[in-house]
Structures are given as C-alpha cells and as structure tokens.
Specification:
41% helix, 7 strands
Length: 221
Amino acid sequence: MSPQVPVVEHILSANDRLAEANRARLDAARVFAVNLMASPGAGKTSLILRTIRALKDRWRIAVVEGDLASTLDADRVAAEGVPAVQIATGGECHLDAAMVRSGLDRLPLDSVDLLIVENVGNLVCPAEFRLGVHRNVLIASVPEGDDKPYKYPPMYRGVDAVVLNKIDVLPAFEFNIEYFRRGVEALNPGVAFFPLSCKTGEGLDGWLDWLEGELRAYREG
C-alpha cells in the first residue's frame, strides 16, 4: 500500500472535523453560509456584488474572499458597505476549513444573516475540501464552453445549485445550453439551475429567489 494514501485520508479527515466545527459555530450564530466555486473569470465576484445590492436592505450580509493573493475582490465587496475578509491562500488552489475558520474569527457573526464564501478560482481542488457551509454553488460561464460538466464531474456532483453566467454573450459562442444541462443533470439530477447575466441582470431574480428561500427556510427551521 502506498504510504501517501493514509496521509491524504488524514488531511481530509482533519479538514472534515474543522468543517463540522465551523458549521456548529455558524449555527450557534444563526448564520446561513454559501460557498461559491468557479473557474477564474466565471463571475463569482460579479454575482456576489449583484446579490449584495439586491439583498442588503433585507439581510445582513458578510463575505469571505479566497484568493491566491491581493485584496482586490474584498475591497470591491467592502465598498458595498458589508463586512469582508480576504484570505490569501499563499498558492493553495482552494479554501479549506481552517482558512474559513480564520475568516470567521474576523467577522461579527452575531450581526450577520448570510455569509457568502468566494472560493479560489479552480474547477478541481475546491470539490475535495468541506468548509462547513450550508450550501455549495457552482458558477459556470458561457465563454468556458458547454463541456465543463463532462470534463470536471466532481465539481458538479456535490453542489446544491449551478449558475450559468454570461448568457448575454450566447450569440458569440457555440454554447449549447441543453447539452450543458444534460451533463449537469446526469451528475446531479434535479439540481437548481439558473442561467443568468450579471452584466444585464437577466435571470438574476431566479437566483435571488432561490437564495432567499434557502435562507428563510434555514432561519425558520
């Protein structure tokens, strides 16, 4: 047996324990947390900004931003008037539960209803590491191509919703939404699916209604 296998299992097991602690901490503060995953440029930050602008008058929102370096995304979020924490992963291609815990340490959880976690732009590593959030959302985009569910199945299997961003540029790309959707459904039957454009606002209402519904159900449960 390869000596590397137990090491990998140990790392993931330790992460899972920290994720459970994160969840317990969020539940104690009654904070509903959502993890947004995507490849670079798919529109994670754009969707977060649109979501904040639409919901911040009704819900208290905070954001944890994960990136390899820089505070650019966190600065944009903070400019919207909500608490934001930037986690520089130092080259790691994903957030893990320990990183999220450090973000929770720097947020006023007692004054937050909705926590949005923006994971590092990557379609491989984030699927392996639990964070302790309540919902996982994958953002795809039209320019990436309609074959991503077929090429990166682990990312699509475990999510609660799939957002297809940048539908405003569909005429410029050979993107078959039905082919894309079939690939998603084969991996994750019945998953919530939201084609939208953060640029024009088309389709955003469906995403916002779903997110608010999940948030209300959590707080009423």
